[in-house]
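Data availability (excerpt). The following record was deposited with the supplementary files.
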Amino acid sequence: MSTDFGDSPNPIREHSYFVSGRYLLPFLVPILAAFSQGFLFLTRRTPEWVRPAVLPGLLGAVGFSEIALMRDVWPSRFNWFHLPAGY
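Predicted structure:
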């Protein structure tokens, strides 16, 4: 069964991560509000038609920097410490 987590206390079969993930959604709203206000503040002097072109560049820069920072972490054998032996 895909939701059989053995003796792990969380998540349990009745309340898998599909249920507990909903608790994180309310934290997304203030983060998105702060991001959008900051984006509008940074682009306040630019014409309104430029904003849709700046947003993908900003998101691409954030994504690229995240990948650059994590490139040494992903191949580490300690990155998957929670998996059972043999994987």
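Summary of structural features: Residues 51-70 form the longest helix (20 residues).
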